[in-house]
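Email to the structure team, subject: ImmA/IrrE family metallo-endopeptidase model.

Hi all, the expression group asked for a predicted structure before they design truncation constructs. Nothing fancy, just the tokens so they can compare against earlier work. One-line instruction: predict ImmA/IrrE family metallo-endopeptidase, return tokens.
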Amino acid sequence: MRIGFARSQGEQLAARLGGSAPPIDVKKVAEHLGLRVVEEHLGADVSGLLITGRAQPCICVQKDDFRPRKRFTIAHEIGHHYLRHQFEGGAHVHVDRGNFISQRSLRSSEGVDPKEIEANQFAAGLLMPSKLVREAVAKIGGPLHDHHVAQLARDFEVSEQAMTIRLTTLRLL
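Reply from the structure team: attached below.
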């Protein structure tokens, strides 16, 4: 498993295409990579799809999800594409179900599905690059409290849970 590599690839892509301030425009990043982003009703337990094949690759995201969730889904699917995760048996559709961050699936929560874990880490690096997170925390200038985490989540347009995990990973919380 290449967790550090996946995270660094997301961060490098954010630095190259995302700009110098949050939030990173994930739709712009997807378009730059040749990925079309479509919002559709995908069913109760499907948060995103990556479709490849002869036509332009496409990310479908659950239309009813709230904005931070859609952004994480798009970043996660970009991760599958960018990290060149191969589909099994010539399949050209990858379906992502459930929550990407916590209890995404039994396999992910057990750390058994390396492609899903790598895509999550890529998404965290893309949406919350360490440089931008560290700069934002430095501006706060003191110990972080719940309201700071909530504000950082709003600034980066991610869930509070995703921001908490990222701050913990960066040893800032």
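The first helix runs from residue 3 to 18. Residues 3-129 form a domain with the Arc Repressor Mutant, subunit A fold (CATH 1.10.10). Ping us if the truncation boundaries need rechecking.
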